[in-house]
Amino acid sequence: MIGLRYSRLVTARPGPADYTDHAARRPMPGLQCVHTRFGIDSRNHESDTYPRDTSKLPHLRRIDMNLLLTFDALMKTRSATAAAAQLHKTQPTISRELARLRHLLEDPLLVVTKGRFVPTERALELHATVREALDRIESALAPPEAFEPARAEGVVNIGTGAHIELLLVAPFLERLRRAAPNLVVRFQSVHGDVEPDDLDSERMDIAIGLFANVPPRFHSLSLFRDRRVCVVASRHPMAHRKRLLLEDLSAFQWFAFARMYGRETNFDRLLGAPHRLAFSAYLSGFGITPYVLLDTDYATTMPWRVAQVHARHFPLTTIELPAPLRDIECFMIWSKRQHTSPLNRWIREQIREILAG
């Protein structure tokens, strides 16, 4: 209990002042007794086994926060009985807590005058600050208010890979225009495996793609399953093929995207060395894909859902890929730091509804 006197044992070099083990009547080297009012502290002066406490707030650390609640109730009610009822405590408990506060603050705080508590100048001064602090703590600990998208502001950073931007952006922007017009969204390209640094920092709030390995410290949600297809111009010499075999892959010129250059890709993991896709070009982004396909004999791969969107606007043909490359799953991932954010949760729900359809 705060305010009682304890003996504190501190290691030190043996000396004349060493205490004696009275049971054995022999010296106890290295032990020296130091009295303190606030607790027992063992410290090794020979080595810094326990680092010195350099934290601030020395006065706050001495006080049980419940004492401040009791003080606030007493200042409001000016009655130990009424304060006890307000805090669901007994009157003797309130009296003991007031006594502790008086001792710690070295001030009577509340004095009885004509059967009622009257605060001292110190109490009046203290209560103005304590009341504001308690209100702020209560507000911080309260559950968050219901999220209102219309009042949301700021920038949301979303990373998209595997052409997913084509499926997401238009309906997502339309939802933001109607429900959250003050939000700004910034899309970024991601390729292959997720970059943990992007999500650990504030560079990216959410990432969406065909991620083969998601670090366990991130949250993830499967958005949809699809199949990967080969896409070529309708005039391509191989456009008549309905399905490709593994040995057919080497007959195509393939392009990928710049961030895949020099890295192990999903294709490498799925195919192995004998049938590895040999990329001879790396584009800067997904947006120019159909234009490159139309004017060359190159081929690329993408989710079937994305290929159908391109096919509505460009004369492109899809060809089924060999089984090892076919099945894909699109994930949305985000950091634990963002998991409870009302804004991030709302954005995730919009993405889920759009892409899961």
Keyphrases for this structure?
357 residues; alpha/beta; nine-stranded mixed β-sheet; two-stranded antiparallel sheet; 15 strands; 35% helix; 25% strand; rod-shaped; disordered N terminus
Helices, strands, pairings?
Elements: E1 6-11, E2 20-21, E3 26-27, E4 31-36, H1 58-61, H2 65-77, H3 80-87, H4 91-105, E5 110-113, E6 116-119, H5 121-141, E7 154-160, H6 164-179, E8 183-189, H7 196-200, E9 206-209, E10 218-233, E11 253-257, H8 266-271, E12 279-283, H9 289-295, E13 298-303, H10 304-311, E14 316-320, H11 323-326, E15 327-335, H12 336-339, H13 342-355
Parallel strand pairs: 7-8, 7-9, 11-12, 11-13
Antiparallel strand pairs: 1-4, 2-3, 5-6, 9-15, 10-13, 10-14, 10-15
Describe the protein.
The chain is α/β, with parallel strands linked by helices and 357 residues long. It is built from 13 helices and 15 strands. It has helices spanning 58-61, 65-77, 80-87, 91-105, 121-141, 164-179, 196-200, 266-271, 289-295, 304-311, 323-326, 336-339, 342-355, and strands spanning 6-11, 20-21, 26-27, 31-36, 110-113, 116-119, 154-160, 183-189, 206-209, 218-233, 253-257, 279-283, 298-303, 316-320, 327-335. Strand 5 and strand 6 (116-119) form a beta hairpin. Helix 2 (65-77) crosses helix 3 (80-87) and helix 6 (164-179) crosses helix 13 (342-355).
**Could you say which overall geometry the principal axes of the C-alpha atoms support?**
rod-shaped
SSE series: EEEEHHHHEEHEHEHEEEHEHEHEHEHH
**Oligomeric category:** single chain
Strand content: 15-25%
Beginning-to-end CA distance, first to last residue: 62 Å
Mean residue pLDDT: 82
What is Rg?
Answer: 35 Å
